[in-house]
Amino acid sequence: MTEKKSSQTWALSLFAIGVFMAALDNGIISAALTTINSNFGVSANWGAWGVTLYTLGLAISVPIIGKLSDRYGRKKLFIIEIAIFGVGSLLVALSPNFTFYLIARFIQAMGGGGIFIIGSSHVLSTMPAEKQGKALGMLGGMNGIASVIGPNLGSFLLDLTGNWHFLFLINVPIAIALVIFGLLKLEETKDPVKGKLDLLGTVLLSLSILGIMYGLTNIEGVNFFDSLLEPNVYGFLLGGLLLFAILLVHESRIEKQGKDPILPFRLLRQPTYLLTLLIGAFSGALLAGMIFIPAFSEQVLGIAQENAGYWMTPLALAAGVGAALGGGLVDKRGPILAVVLSGLISAIGFFLFPAWIEVKWQFVISSCIAGLGMGIILGAPLNILATERLHSDKGTAISTLSLSRQIGMTIAPTIYAGFIARGFNELPGLFKTEFPGILQKNINEANLGPEGLAELGTLASQMSAGTGSMTEAEMNQVINQIQDPSLKEAVLSSVQEVTEMAAQNGYSGLFYTAVVIAVLIIVATAIMAPIRRKTALRQKTTAK
Q1: Does residue 81 carry a pLDDT above 80?
Q2: Which of 38, 76, 256, 447 to pair with 238, CA 20 to 30 A apart?
């Protein structure tokens, strides 16, 4: 008994470190994107491919690794995944040119994509039901916390070393240690399988995911619906969906022949599983909302850019607490209550951002509430819902859920960014309607002397001619010409207030959309609950 407990402790520890390392990587690179782009001499648009390719690699690898781990063994696949991730990290750090760097990032993603899936399916296959929630909550917490603190750690390491290569080199010794201890300490687990691996299904699934995800990444947030009509969006989306339809036909035939399909086709016919996938996509969309919180703190609260990332710490800590709480709640009260609570708390947290926050302490409280809500759903509840009453294909079921979450995380940032862009597009109108009154208020408080009042008259004549159409560059040029310090301070404060007003309008749309998504999680769960009860009752009756 003690030996088995020790084995589980080792397994959870190794999986947790692996999950943390893989999840950290996509956040840690954001702090160094500008430096990397400069090093390779590429534009920001090209540089973004370092993130895009990693995302595409994750999306492709997740469902395939889930199936392979069920079939060939979770210990074996964990070691392979860690080794691939370590090699990919080394190749990124040693990249001699940008093309090599992009290929290495894709290799990294193929290694990092399945670690969380393998760990989760191991927990569900080896641990008693009453302990699964806490274990999954821990893995989910590591996943969420790493994603949040990644940019902060990246900034710290970049400041400390002055070299972006170290952001990836640190993965190598960790990966080597995980491979060694994995070989020594992990026990092999796998599900019984029949027939050969579905190679055609694997290829079809990979190509369909690649098409759909690439099409989604090409959508522009400002012109969301217009961009859907662009060939590089609808072409890839339709191609991906067509391949997915062919895949479903193929998988149905494979299943009827009693073979082993790459996709859990029988699960896709179950309403509870489909609703779990939908909730997974919604949870991914909520997670994507957290990406914009540092920018909100900078543009709305006026926190310095170099410090904005550190203000994610309360949210990260709360997400860790929420993941542990969610796991314990699942063990004691079941997954439905945990998901509903997650949606409710997340909705409250995101609602407070536009409706309440004016000062920093309010920001901290709102961040903690939103992080707590999101943390609850990160690990245990959806994984339990996706795999309950399954005797096999647990890794496949979880990986498909993870893919749906990834789709939500891909679509949502585009929509959110569109709200922010539209908010800043209102700046010319705000300068025309709001700026005069704000400026007058600040000037009254400045108590200008005769020279300042005279300069104010000249400034007023300059700005009255074109305030409604004045660009940011023209506004800055006018401000730089002001000589009186008190007047300049008043004008700068007024411009800052109007800019924050535009930012607040944009972020309000973002956070209210997140509230709607959180409510949709509650609605989908409420629809699922009676269906789930009927399914359980029917299975019990059949068993008798």
Answers
A1: yes
A2: 256
How distant, in Å, are the alpha carbons of 136, 253, 381, 406, 435 from that of 69? 17, 23, 21, 20, 61
The average pLDDT across 48-69 equals: 84
Q: How many residues does the chain have?
A: 544
For 514-534, the pLDDT digits (tens) are 999 999 999 999 999 999 988
Structure confidence at residue 467 (pLDDT):
47
Closest CA to 429 of 327, 358, 498, 348: 498
Closest listed residue to residue 116, CA positions, set 80, 98, 142? 142
Asked if residue 37 lies in contact with residue 46, where contact means CB atoms within 8 angstroms, the answer is yes
Phi and psi, residue 260, nearest 5°: -110, 95
Residue-wise burial string across 132-142, b where 16 or more C-beta atoms lie within 10 A, e elsewhere: bbbbbbbbbbb
Q: Enumerate the β-bridge partners of residue 304.
A: none
Residue type, 503: A
Report the alpha-carbon distance of residue 445 to residue 390 in Å, rounded.
Answer: 69
- Residues 105 and 42: their CA atoms lie apart, in Å, by 16
Q: pLDDT per residue over 285-296, tens digit each? A: 998 888 788 788
497-522 mean pLDDT: 91
